[in-house]
User: Which sequence fits this backbone?
């Protein structure tokens, strides 16, 4: 049997295993719903939605903003998709809430056409929120942001399954200061180079309410891919001692892989965020910078000005125009090309060769690109699925309401340079455009028309349109 056939059989077996795991979780949640309903039939609240979309495109691929940051509800080759979502909520006492949710998606143009998006249980009280399972991230900035407000953890990939404990809302320390926090453990259960990779996550944030009109938020977030089974190094450390090393980003001993002895156990990445919000007579303003890092040089800001630089404005008295957003995204410095600490090579790793991806989709900013067709078993120095992580992009978003029509417009001008090791020649210059018009009826749901046009210096122009319908109950 040749190597290609072996890889196909292994991949097919892995997909079958993932399907069985999803089916097992679906059965568990279905039984939980039955118990939930019988236990609190009068107090339980149900909600849900269903949607359909059809898309036409001038090329096989559809416009960039049609499919990016959709949690893979729509793929880059999708022409039709269906989505269904249901949630049940039970309140008891004054501050205790238990919620269960499931959402399923069916679309063409993707290897796994039928998948779950959400599958979770969530408990909240007046200070804590605990979520078990996979749950979509909340949409920030009215869906205008290029990365949903988080360059490391956007909505570009399907939600990862795991467990997160976090503050329900920032906890007041004093009249001025409030503390935000979160800690989580996730599992990357997809078909990847290091099987059963785990993800450690934590954040700590400080909110400073200077007065009623001025607020400053500072946040540190940290991710680490660790553990799992590598084709090259075998079973990677996964015990309590290894977790402590991962938590504090410490290097490993002689029993760990070579790269983890010089650096840290696992593949570490994270960001600093500084956000300033202020209220004026004409509207609400915000200005923010999120600085990403992958090693010590990045945490020391040697890769400045990499990250996201953004600003928003929400006028108070205008309806036709309700929000404006601008973001400049830069990942091109990477602490430079020379020196021991240079070439940070964002979202890549020599041990975790699939990189910062889930099911081949970048978990962070969609401007960084992975190629899941690359054979990561090839014997070469540091093979990786990440083919483009040096990007400069200007992104604009605008939205408003005209009579009963809600409209939204996004446009992005980007320059993709490839990687330091394998630069693009020439660089890829792209211009992505997206527009939507939405009308909500009183009884019959929401109708939406979308349009998009992408231009590039190396590929054909992509022009597309679509019609969708959503009913919320």
Assistant:
């Amino acid at each position: 049997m040749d190597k290609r056939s072996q890889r196909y059989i292994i991949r097919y077996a892995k997909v079958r295993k993932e399907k069985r795991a999803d089916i097992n979780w679906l059965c568990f949640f279905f039984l939980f719903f039955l118990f939930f309903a019988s236990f609190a039939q009068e107090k339980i609240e149900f909600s849900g939605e269903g949607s359909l979309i059809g898309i036409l495109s001038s090329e096989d691929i559809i416009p960039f903003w049609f499919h990016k940051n959709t949690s893979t509800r729509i793929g880059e080759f999708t022409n039709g998709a269906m989505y269904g979502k249901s949630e049940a909520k039970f309140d008891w006492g004054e501050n205790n809430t238990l919620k269960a949710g499931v959402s399923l998606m069916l679309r063409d143009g993707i290897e796994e056409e039928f998948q779950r998006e959400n599958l979770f249980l969530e408990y909240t009280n007046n200070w804590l929120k605990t979520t078990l399972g996979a749950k979509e991230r909340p949409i920030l900035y009215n869906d205008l942001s290029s990365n949903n407000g988080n360059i490391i953890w956007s909505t570009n990939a399907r939600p990862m399954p795991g467990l997160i404990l976090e503050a329900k809302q920032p906890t007041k320390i004093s009249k001025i200061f409030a503390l935000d926090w979160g800690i989580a453990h996730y599992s990357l259960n997809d078909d990847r180079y290091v099987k059963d990779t785990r993800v450690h996550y934590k954040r700590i944030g400080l909110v400073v309410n200077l007065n009623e009109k001025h607020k400053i938020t500072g946040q540190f977030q940290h991710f680490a891919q660790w553990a799992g089974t590598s084709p090259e190094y075998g079973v990677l450390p996964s015990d309590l001692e290894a977790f402590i090393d991962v938590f504090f980003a410490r290097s490993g001993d002689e029993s760990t892989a070579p790269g983890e002895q010089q650096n840290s156990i696992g593949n570490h990445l994270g960001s600093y965020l500084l956000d300033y919000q202020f209220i004026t007579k004409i509207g609400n303003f915000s200005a923010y910078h999120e600085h990403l890092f992958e090693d010590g040089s990045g945490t020391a800001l040697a890769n400045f000005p990499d990250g996201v630089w953004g600003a928003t404005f929400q006028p108070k008295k205008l309806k036709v125009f309700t929000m404006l957003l601008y973001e400049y995204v830069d990942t091109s410095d990477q602490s430079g090309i020379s020196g021991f600490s240079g070439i940070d090579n964002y979202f890549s790793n020599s041990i975790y060769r699939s990189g910062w991806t889930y099911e081949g989709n970048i978990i962070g900013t969609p401007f960084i690109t992975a190629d899941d067709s690359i054979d990561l078993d090839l014997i070469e120095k540091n093979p990786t699925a990440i083919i483009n992580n040096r990007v400069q992009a200007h992104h604009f978003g605008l939205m408003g309401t005209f009579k009963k029509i809600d409209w939204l417009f996004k446009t992005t001008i980007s320059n993709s340079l490839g990687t330091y090791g394998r630069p693009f020649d020439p660089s890829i210059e792209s211009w992505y455009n997206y527009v939507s018009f939405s009308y909500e009826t009183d009884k019959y749901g929401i109708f939406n028309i979308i349009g998009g046009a992408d231009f590039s210096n190396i590929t054909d122009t992509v022009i597309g349109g679509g019609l969708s319908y959503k009913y919320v109950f």
Notes: The chain has one domain: 44-472. The longest helix spans residues 3-39.
